[in-house]
């Protein structure tokens, strides 16, 4: 507006009129323009703040930590499976070995790319191992078997999100897809003489430099038991009860999920300061809560493996999209989804190809394989091939690509989304 006024003044021929008008404008009109601009900025800020980013409380961070360092990060990162904290029960192992049972003695993380992991899953490789006893060594044959227990936990978490009426966001956790169990499949002839285990050594041959033993996957989800604050309050129907948990003492920035248990839960509502569980249970009981910790996410833990997350940048467009879901129609909108994540900035969408047939060119997998489409048949879907360029060249390259493609897949249920790096 000020530029327009300045241009009009400069176009006036008579200097005396220009001077008079300039004085009037400076004394009255420019102050009005300044006031209007301040009000516009205030309105813009208020609109931005009022469109709440509901996802930010449920950002999930993942990494891999050596078992003996868990206590150093346990105010933010926790084992995905709590029993991973425990060591090997040697007495139980010895008993099963005497019975020549198949038994898992260790789990191993392979620092390998997606295709190398796929090859290892198909090979069913047998390796040699040695148990060092109190008096002698015993030879074993072990097999690598793909570990899926962490994938099953992820599936259960998805179901808990649904129970809590929260939209699911793909979890960026490539580490749990590179873990194998070391299973004993054949024993030394004298294994019955084993009475004490001092150490177990496994020879994984050419994989030696890429092998990480005694590492466990962790994330920022803590399991806690919490009783409601005060007595359950009868609802309007006089049949059910509201169990209210105040979140002030548990940090309002965290996300909270109620795990369905033996009690019937009719609804779970999260307000800014409360968690309201509506149930037919009239007694004050303890609820299992998943606390998605956010307040310590920027603390420096000197992690050995990169901290992954599905956190998004705090942008106005993402907030608006959460409030009003819309159909994606352009490549630019897909690019906005790709660029919305905080820790992934190396992938650039170059091209999209639609095909009537399934492509074999892809090196991506579905991170949300547990989400079943009960309406559309897979054989009736076309393939959307997303061509990316990438600046990243390491063992996580295709895992991060799979994460992005899996998130895009949620916007395009009528297609089978695949990704390649060109």
The helix/strand series, from N terminus to C terminus, equals HHEEHEHEEHEEEEEEEEEEEEHHEEHE
Task: Report the sheet with the most strands, covering strand number, pairing sense and barrel closure.
Answer: 6 strands, antiparallel
Strand content: 25-35%
Number of strands: 20
What is the number of helical segments per DSSP (H or I, 4+ residues)?
8
Helix content: 25-40%
Q: Strand order, main sheet: write it out.
A: 7-4-5-6-3-8
- Mean pLDDT score: 85
Give the end-to-end Cα distance, rounded to a whole number of Å: 47 Å
Show the helix and strand layout.
Layout: H1 2-10, H2 15-50, E1 61-66, E2 78-79, H3 90-98, E3 103-110, H4 114-123, E4 126-132, E5 137-146, H5 149-163, E6 179-187, E7 199-203, E8 211-213, E9 215-219, E10 221-227, E11 233-234, E12 241-246, E13 255-258, E14 265-270, E15 274-279, E16 286-292, E17 308-309, H6 316-323, H7 331-338, E18 347-355, E19 382-390, H8 397-409, E20 415-421
Parallel strand pairs: 19-20
Antiparallel strand pairs: 1-9, 1-17, 2-9, 3-6, 3-8, 4-5, 4-7, 5-6, 10-16, 11-12, 12-15, 13-16, 14-15, 18-19
Give a summary of the structure in a few sentences.
The protein is α+β, with helices and mostly antiparallel strands. The protein has helices spanning 2-10, 15-50, 90-98, 114-123, 149-163, 316-323, 331-338, 397-409; strands spanning 61-66, 78-79, 103-110, 126-132, 137-146, 179-187, 199-203, 211-213, 215-219, 221-227, 233-234, 241-246, 255-258, 265-270, 274-279, 286-292, 308-309, 347-355, 382-390, 415-421.
What would you note in describing this structure?
- By secondary structure, this protein is of the alpha+beta class.
- It has four domains: 2-50; 57-219, no CATH class; 226-292; 312-421, no CATH class.
- The chain contains eight helices and 20 strands.
- The protein has helices spanning 2-10, 15-50, 90-98, 114-123, 149-163, 316-323, 331-338, 397-409; strands at 61-66, 78-79, 103-110, 126-132, 137-146, 179-187, 199-203, 211-213, 215-219, 221-227, 233-234, 241-246, 255-258, 265-270, 274-279, 286-292, 308-309, 347-355, 382-390, 415-421.
- The strands form five sheets. The protein has a six-stranded antiparallel sheet.
- The model is unreliable at 47-51 (pLDDT under 50).
